[in-house]
Amino acid sequence: MPEGLKTLTRYTIEEEHRHPGSSGEFSGLVNVVATATKIIANQVTRGAIVGSRRKLDTIANDIMVSETQWTGHLSALLSEQMSGAQPVPDAHRRGKYLLAYDPLDGSSNIDVNLPVGTIFSVLRAPAGSGAEPSDADFLQPGTRQVCAGFTLYGPATMLVLTTGSGVDGFTLDREIGAFVLTHPRMRIPEETTGFAINAANERFWERPVRRYVHECLDGIDGPRGRDFNMRWVASLVADTFHILTRGGVYLYPYDTRPPQRAGQVALLYGANPIAFIVEQAGGWATTGGDRVREVVPTEVHQRVPLIFGSRNEVQRIEHYHSEPEEGPRFDSSLFGTRSLFRPAGRANPV
């Protein structure tokens, strides 16, 4: 390891020392989660050997459970692969934290060798109830998170982490088998000239989103007066890391396609941890109408729209949602010019 680099273990211990009276449980939990993601990273790099995407999803989930539930730090776990909260077995001591996670975000990219990752959120378990942990324990708004992070399994394995005092990025040094601090105090520029959205869904977008995207695509000749770049990886962790390092906006907005549902991104183990990280890096995260971290969950697998990134751009999109009837009219007729890449028509406005 190059001289001067700090391991995640040292980093978490030093953070504990800044809080007199800390028990060490929290730093222990962070390091256990990091160990689980290192094991998952090894399985992901062997993806073609291990098997299908579904199998890798299951393997990643099993790794996270087996590496964390015995440590005494957790009361219960929740993941995309579980139907509901999974209490830590009675055979193990139960701790004061809850872990919600997506074991393999972007797993549809496995077959084409694009980046995937693990997203996680740590909450405090309700104190003093004495009851068996349940789904209700996880139904806390994102403002109550004590830690959030994600691991990106790409050319390098990266761990991005916040405990509420900024955002730090770590790279897995495979020679020593440890995460080392390589991206301290990550910050998202307030302004950007890039955005990420799945343009194929344009016909389902609400007017504020179409307004924003069309203004960006009008470029230097449009109302924004500058050119924008558009991208889409279909991997939340990959787009988040791109925004953390280069700025930008990510949009997975509400759309009108059937079946009707409020959004596409899991609130507890997707939108909330990403929003926590983004806000701690100086950005902003919204559903379009509400701050993501203030949404009160009603069920553990609740999904929401998610728009986040450079603060000024996200707040512009929020403003457009506050005046949904403003802006240009868009043609939604079957043969209308509704493409992102051609001027919108005037007939049959929506």
TrEMBL record:
The pathway entry for this protein reads as:
Carbohydrate biosynthesis
CDD domains membership: FBPase
All copies of domain Fructose-1-6-bisphosphatase class 1 C-terminal, residue ranges: 188-321
- All residue ranges annotated as the Fructose-1-6-bisphosphatase class I N-terminal domain in the record: 6-184
EC number per UniProt: 3.1.3.11
Where along this sequence does the record place binding of substrate?
A: D105, G106, S107, S108, N198, Y250, L251, Y252
Q: Which UniProt keywords apply?
A: Calvin cycle, Carbohydrate metabolism, Cytoplasm, Hydrolase
Does this entry carry the keyword ATP-binding? no
- Is Cell inner membrane set as a keyword in this record? no
One family from Pfam that matches here is FBPase
Catalytic activity line of the entry: beta-D-fructose 1,6-bisphosphate + H2O = beta-D-fructose 6-phosphate + phosphate
Q: Where in the cell is it found?
A: Cytoplasm
EC supergroup of this enzyme: hydrolase
Q: One GO molecular function term?
A: fructose 1,6-bisphosphate 1-phosphatase activity
- Xref: InterPro entries: FBPase_C_dom, FBPase_class-1, FBPase_N, FBPtase
The main place the protein resides is cytoplasm
The family classification in the record reads: Belongs to the FBPase class 1 family.
Oligomeric form and interacting partners: Homotetramer.
Question: What name does UniProt use for this protein?
Answer: Fructose-1,6-bisphosphatase class 1
